[in-house]
């Protein structure tokens, strides 16, 4: 039986878009490197110092098995799993950081909301997308939207609100019972 990891005090994450690597540190000691997919050149992953602001288990669809939201101004960016393993190690997203599902699950158990995340500036890649917290910076467009279900929401209302089909919502979220949504449930809105 695998031991259950615990959150670690002093945890930090550094993401280097140039090498497409996420490095996980505890008390300034490297614990592990993970390969990641980052933003395309036209829609780079913004550089700067941020924090994890929320964590969601099994968001599904393009987000894979875990989501860790970042406080990057001007967008809905995060570190997440994915449903396309071949995208890891490439410039593929519209700004988010993609990981293999097994890797994001491992990392997810070791960090908490508030964990610092530094995304490095890379000459010729994301220098214009450098964002400082509180700047209200203009981030690149999103490769997805995550909506959290509110009381009274239905899949049909969400489809109408976001101008997508119900079938697209079902597919993006791997919903087995589209008639049942839970308040607080993360729903991926395909773009």
UniProtKB/TrEMBL annotation:
GO biological process, one term: peptidoglycan-protein cross-linking
Residue intervals of the L,D-TPase catalytic domain: 11-120
Keywords: Cell shape, Cell wall biogenesis/degradation, Glycosyltransferase, Hydrolase, Peptidoglycan synthesis, Transferase
Superkingdom classification of source: Bacteria
A single MF term (Gene Ontology): glycosyltransferase activity
Domain HTH cro/C1-type: 153-169
Domain LysM positions: 145-189
Record-annotated active site: 80 (proton donor/acceptor), 96 (nucleophile)
Pathway note: Cell wall biogenesis; peptidoglycan biosynthesis
Keyword Cell wall biogenesis/degradation: yes
GO cellular component: extracellular region
CDD domains from the UniProt entry: LysM (cd00118), YkuD_like (cd16913)
Keyword Amino-acid biosynthesis recorded: no
InterPro entries assigned to the protein according to its UniProt record, in alphabetical order: Cro/C1-type_HTH, LD-transpeptidase, LD_TPept_cat_dom, LysM, LysM_dom_sf, Transpep_catalytic_dom
Family, similarity comment: Belongs to the YkuD family.
PANTHER family cross-referenced by the UniProt entry: L,D-TRANSPEPTIDASE, L,D-TRANSPEPTIDASE ERFK_SRFK-RELATED
The name this protein goes by in its record: ErfK/YbiS/YcfS/YnhG family protein
Organism: Desulforamulus ruminis (strain ATCC 23193 / DSM 2154 / NCIMB 8452 / DL) (Desulfotomaculum ruminis)
């Amino acid at each position: 039986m695998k031991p259950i990891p615990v959150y670690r005090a002093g945890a930090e994450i550094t993401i280097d878009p140039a090498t497409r690597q996420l490095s996980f540190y505890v008390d300034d000691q490297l614990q592990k490197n993970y390969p990641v997919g980052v933003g395309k050149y036209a829609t780079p992953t913004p550089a700067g110092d941020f924090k994890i602001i929320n964590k969601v288990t099994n968001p599904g669809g393009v987000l894979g098995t875990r989501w860790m939201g970042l406080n990057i101004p001007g967008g809905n960016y995060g570190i997440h799993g994915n449903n396309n393993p071949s995208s890891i190690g490439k410039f593929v997203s519209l700004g988010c950081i993609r990981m293999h599902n097994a890797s994001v699950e491992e990392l997810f158990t070791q960090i908490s909301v508030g964990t610092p995340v530094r995304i490095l500036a890379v000459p010729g890649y994301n220098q214009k997308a450098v964002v400082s917290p509180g700047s209200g910076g203009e981030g690149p467009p999103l490769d997805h939207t995550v909506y959290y279900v509110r009381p009274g929401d239905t899949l049909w209302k969400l489809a109408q609100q976001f101008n997508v089909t119900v079938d697209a919502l079902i597919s993006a979220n791997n919903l087995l019972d589209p008639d049942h949504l839970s308040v607080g449930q993360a729903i991926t809105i395909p773009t």
